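Q: What structure does this chain adopt?
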Amino acid sequence: MKMTCLLRNAALNWPDAIALHDGDRNISYIELERLIVGQARRLKRLGIQSGDRVGILARNSAEYAALLFAVSRLGASTVLLNVRHSPREWNDMLAESQASLLLVDAEHHSTLDSPTIPVWVIDDDHSDSISRIVPADETIPRDIDTEWEMTVTFTSGSSGKPKGVILTYVNHYFNALGSNENIPLQSGDCWLLSLPLYHVGGISILFRSALAGSSAHIMRRFDAAAANVLIDSGVVTHLSLVPTMLTTLLQHRDYRPLPATFKAILLGGAPVPTSLIERARELKLPLLTSYGLTETGSQVCTLGPQDSPEKLNTSGRPLKYRELRILDVNGLHASADAVGEIAVRGEVLFKGYLGGEILDPDSWFHTGDMGTLDSDGYLTVCGRKDDMLISGGENIFPREIEAQVESFPGVLDCAVIGVPDTKWGERPVLFVETAASADCNLDELKRHLRERLSRIKVPDTIIVMDKLSRLGISKIDKARLMDLYRKRKDNHGAD
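A:
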């Protein structure tokens, strides 16, 4: 099945509407379409054709956005490299994906380590800029095969080696379509693009905007001060953030209410602290919590604007074009409010991983996340299946401990891991991030937890840190925390 490229459609329907704000540039949809076609012709001159893979290593920019669609117009796909990874990891991912070309911004060009494939720079003012390539004198297809592979995005690797997730054009399309049917978006609206384009959360903003004829305001790095100026001036109407970004944004504005012109904050990527939910209710923020995966192109469940603020402690209900089930230990449909593994399927579900698919016979993807569905169909995520620990015969999800710690004064962030214990089998160890160790009274924290949790769930060991290690923009690196714990234990460090 073929469909006209969304950006081509947007250029036909809203030619003069602004598609991208990038620094001091305002790029209309017709200008963006011309940029896409020009880059596609240059890539064609470099030999890129249907079935090829092209790596991109860069921060957000209009050039990055154009190249994503230019590559897809040739029937090729983009391998999206995380700028936080190392040169060795970039080379490994390019090799695993069999990419034939690498596009890189000037900032990261000098950090490459002996690349084995041709490299071109996406910035215009660089000596190796792709803009210096003479475009091929060929017509660029307007139509996209909906089953074509469009992106390869590597997971964060929180439970092992990062996996290359293959998403088709139709996966991205239906994810955006379901989102727009839940969160109204129209021409004249503007979504802040501060999530990186090497994450599905960033790419999905481009698709949503193209479907609605709205614009995206590109931010290379999240800047709370700049974001607040855009919000208060009415330029930006929608945000996609992870919890730490929203906390920083609200702190910077001294918790002033958002203007009435502002429409929605889509929040995901990590568990939402209880204190942040309470603050959102106080400020009457248009906050929409969500649950999503790289494997589904972004959102699976999201609250709707009509939902009660009392549901902010959930991740909402499944959007259109997705199905979700909670499976018990036997792989059967669990009853309401029962904890089980989250399984998803539908139009948004990925094609597979590099090296193979892992769907069950009925096309359900078992996510490895644990959760519950209430009687109204709202999802509550409990944590990762492989994070669950069994202590004294009782199942403990780190998230239920972390949720209680987050509300304690002086705690900026926290994480719980399970460690072996000769008596109990496993015990939870709590890591706490504070601005200063004196800000967090550990005796009071333990008392706080004893009042809210069963005794078996209260950690015996609490380790205070200035900063918790993270994977990407949101997830805490629990593998590193485990290494730190083992080193402390080997060195007989004080707990």
